[in-house]
Design brief:
The structure is a homodimer of 540-residue chains.
Chain A lengths: L1 H23 L4 H20 L27 H20 L3 E2 L5 E3 H4 L21 E3 L4 H11 L4 E10 L13 E10 L6 H16 L5 E7 H11 L6 H8 L7 H11 L4 H11 L2 E2 L3 H6 L2 H4 L2 H19 L6 E4 L12 E7 H4 L2 H12 L8 H4 L3 E8 L2 H10 L9 E7 H10 L13 E4 L6 H13 L4 E3 L7 H10 L4 E4 L2 H6 L1 E6 L11 E4 L3 H10 L1
Parallel strand pairs in A: 1-4, 6-8, 12-13, 12-14
Antiparallel strand pairs in A: 2-3, 4-5, 5-11, 6-9, 7-8, 9-10, 10-11, 14-15, 15-16
Helix pairs in contact in A: 1-2, 3-6, 3-18, 5-17, 6-13, 7-10, 7-13, 8-9, 9-10
Keywords (chains A, B): Aminoacyl-tRNA synthetase, Ligase
Organism (chains A, B): Coemansia nantahalensis
EC number (chains A, B): 6.1.1.21
């Protein structure tokens, strides 16, 4: 492993140097983006590097020193960036009054059963070691609905950031993992139409604007309008799922290809497909509602009326929330999950959708996948958040508790952010050496004579005063080692002591962030003034 | 479930009222402690309440609306308190320069194999669904050692707060869960003797002093001294584990009982037990080292010499770190885990150890357990943090990678905090109604006429200015509903608007934290001054 890892690290280092140069030279965006993509690839490969030499030299018993397929360790720098991202997101959620809850990492198997359609095969089960049958959570939505039903609370606005598990074929370079973070914001409660729905889109816009992920658009559609389109076009009941999934590919494929899939692969009559085509190729802003309302055959359908009324309200509220500039009403957006009942939305990066070559490559790779279905996580490389309204999910649990179908369910609407994608986007814009993973402000240095106990005494005084402090854990450390610890951990200040300073009751204070910090002696400070002086400088 | 839950909630509510009264009356500590214990019991029962009515009325298919045995949901108020605790702890860790890393929730099964002795039977395995055999992590120490070995880093000071999994018999009232949080701080690296070890104890003292958990003592011992005692006392090699575990019970049982267990149950010769007895009943401060050094038969043993030298250094450093007042050198402390190689320590609540009746009851209950072994988590109700030095664990992984025994291992020392215990201690001192789980600062109210869009407009302006704001998700909400939302969520400020105010271009600002907030009209503020005025008041 060592060699391969070393080589990868070397490559990344060289790439970083090149990227710095390109940025300094203000090179073309696309050139930089290409290098950044390469770097991301190298980084994920490095992350996925899994102790291959484990069985290469068998002498004693061998333990595989690696992590399970599709999982990874996060280093201190990863965690530092991840925690910044989480903090930004949580601030937005809390600005909108959300609280957080936590649920177990595994649920009773039957809680998850029947919620994910075909994808149920991706659920991780725990081994039967006696007792209940349990499975690792597949998302945070179903556990949330179970929690709402179980606790009997009538309403809650909550966020939840936690890991979920899918026994998928991992594709590290595409950011598809078996263990990955989800970050959900949901509003549950019996409220008036579209008020919380519009707020979820506002939350998405706030989060994505504040994270450094690039330009994005939130695509919108409504399940009831989509259902009405299929009904009035004459799609047979049993084909609706399949046709809906074909429509969903319109962001990656031209209409001709989608039409072909509908008619040739899925056996839909040509004229039915054409009628669908007149609707699902529509996209735009609020004015699209007028286009729909001008179609009497659609508006005769009750579901269409409800959906259009909802969307009219939505656009009014979205205008007040100043998010009209970020949304696009897109009649081809269908979303895979069964449980949506109203508005659905999906935030996509605009740069990605402007790259037809990439999009087509992804789509054709997806087409080749075994099932013949487009694999969502693969094709939708641009999707960074998604959600919608699901009014019946809590009711499924309440119904089973009360023995009555659908009674007392709590209507919900929510949005889920694709954390791994966001993480890799933000990470790709950061230079590793600029990330300070620790919070250490001061390093206590004795250039010679060791002076361990005196270094300890100074550290204690600084800890007592809330100043994050470290020193070398050696009785007699080399000066170079102490300086390089400051460099490696980007520690801004050094307190330096020698026998002279001890005798005079002073310390030297040195700004390690300055160029040539190893030159010069730093400022002479009375030992009794050390804490006050450091506090002053750290605040500056 | 509803009724039972309601009853529990009612009982807790009544208890809270009584507790408030007792505290106001400055009642005896023990009386309050009794009520607090009862409340904790009720709370955990409430938490563990698991949709019992699921199968009581079968009409359609029934889904069990409950969480798996030994797991629980955390409510918003739980999470709020938990996050305060984590923040306090993380601040201490970061003050000492620690970074955080993350590892997967499951590991390859063989990574965990052979690390936990008898307790290996408590490991949760994932079902074999093809591919690798995996298990849920049992603690954070073994995954940390695996990470250090796998990444090849020579040193790291890291903390990790995450859930671990044990297929134990849950005892919710004792805080023993199958899914629970651990919070670990470890220093890995080839450092000079006892410098990081003393810092770990300093970190424990800082954390426990800052959390509101009550008085505590950190018991200390050294594996090498303990091994030497057994060697010079003449304990046969194959009995050392069993005798060590008997010695560990001296905090709960008198010496006579422990001696009896050694001789009658474990077949040790009486004079061997008596020799052990002269050592393991010793406890005290640094002066105990003089007592040991005055025993030539012990000091002839090389391990004893090493252990005593270590402890002499430790006490010197502990004095500099100002933690001598918190530690107790206790020759009976043995700790269960095999992997410790040097100093071991355990923080216990002093109140608990001062309750011999409770301690004896716990010990006798533990004695009755099937295996005849004291169940640690049950008997040690007083233990809130524990750890020690483990120099060989990383080497186990490195050795297997390199094919050489023990080569290139990274020595480690660390401390793990018992989060569930700490959480329930802190929670028991908090009144539910005083916990504000949300961060909402302002609620926008329209006493009549609905004014939804105007409320939305105000909320948008406040969000844009970083002020956490909510309003009723109804077009025409009742005033009482709006006021009670402020009360329930402890929201300090209300912005109130009516048609009059809109016409005059003003809003009313009302301090909802004041008594009789529903009376009076609040201050009249120009709408253009609203944000500035609120920012000023929120900062005050």
């Amino acid at each position: 492993m060592g060699d391969c890892e070393e080589q990868l690290r070397k490559q990344i280092g060289e790439l970083d140097a090149r990227l710095r140069q390109l940025r300094a030279d203000k090179a073309e965006k696309s050139v930089i983006a290409g290098e950044v993509a390469t770097r991301r690839d190298l980084t994920t490969r490095l992350g996925a590097l899994t102790g291959v030499s484990a069985s290469s030299k068998k002498e004693s018993k061998t333990i595989a020193v690696k992590v399970p397929k599709g999982t990874r360790d996060y280093t201190a720098k990863d965690m530092s960036v991840r925690s910044e991202i989480f903090q930004t997101i949580v601030e937005v959620f809390e600005r909108h009054g959300a609280v957080t809850i936590d649920t177990p990492v595994f649920e009773l198997k039957e809680v998850l059963t029947g919620k994910y359609g075909e994808d149920s095969k991706l659920i991780y089960d725990l081994k039967d070691q006696g007792g209940e049958e349990c499975s690792l959570r597949y998302d945070l939505t179903v556990p949330f609905a179970r929690h709402v039903a179980m606790s009997g609370i009538p309403k809650i606005k909550r966020y939840h950031i936690a890991k979920v598990y899918r026994r998928d074929q991992p594709a590290m370079t595409k950011g598809r993992m078996r263990e990955f973070f989800q970050c959900d914001f949901d509003i549950a409660g019996p409220y008036d139409a579209m008020i919380p729905d519009a707020e979820c889109v506002r939350v998405a816009v706030e989060v994505l604007s504040q994270l450094d992920v690039g330009s994005f658009v939130v695509k919108l559609n409504h399940r009831k309008i989509l259902d009405a389109i299929f009904e009035v076009s004459g799609v047979p009941e049993d084909k609706i799922r399949a046709i809906s999934s074909a429509v969903d590919k319109l962001d990656k494929l031209p209409w001709a290809d989608v039409r072909k899939e509908m008619t040739e692969e899925k056996g839909l009559a040509g004229e039915v497909a054409d009628r669908i085509g007149t609707y699902v190729q529509l996209r735009g802003g609020p004015e699209l509602l007028e286009t729909l309302k001008a179609k009497p055959e659609l508006m005769a359908n009750a579901k269409a009326q409800e959906g259009v009324a909802d969307m009219e309200l939505f656009f009014r509220y979205a205008a007040i929330y100043n998010v009209l500039g970020y949304v696009s009403f897109d009649m081809s957006l269908a979303r895979g999950l069964d449980y949506y009942t109203g508005i659905i939305y999906e935030a996509v990066l605009v740069e990605e959708s402007e790259r037809p070559v990439v999009a087509q490559a992804a789509a054709s790779a997806a087409k080749k996948s075994k099932s013949g279905e487009v694999d969502e996580s693969q094709a939708r490389t641009g999707s960074i958040a998604a959600g919608g309204r699901y009014d019946k999910l809590v009711g499924m649990f309440v119904a089973s508790r009360r023995g009555k179908e659908g009674r007392d369910g709590v209507p919900c609407v929510g949005i889920s952010f694709g954390m791994e994608r966001i993480f890799s986007l933000v990470m790709s814009r950061r230079m590793s050496q600029d990330i300070k993973a620790n919070k250490t402000a001061v390093y206590v240095i004795a250039p010679k004579d060791g002076l361990l106990e005196e270094r300890m005494r100074i550290a204690t005084e600084l800890w007592d005063n809330g100043i994050a402090t470290e020193f070398a854990y050696k009785t007699n450390p080399r000066l170079a080692t102490q300086y390089s610890a400051c460099d490696a951990d980007v520690i801004p200040w050094a307190v330096i002591i020698g026998k002279d300073e001890l005798e005079k009751g002073v310390v030297l204070l040195k700004n390690m962030a300055e160029k040539d910090a190893s030159q010069g002696n730093g400022a002479v400070i009375q030992r009794s003034e050390m804490v006050a002086e450091l506090k002053k400088r750290l605040q500056a």
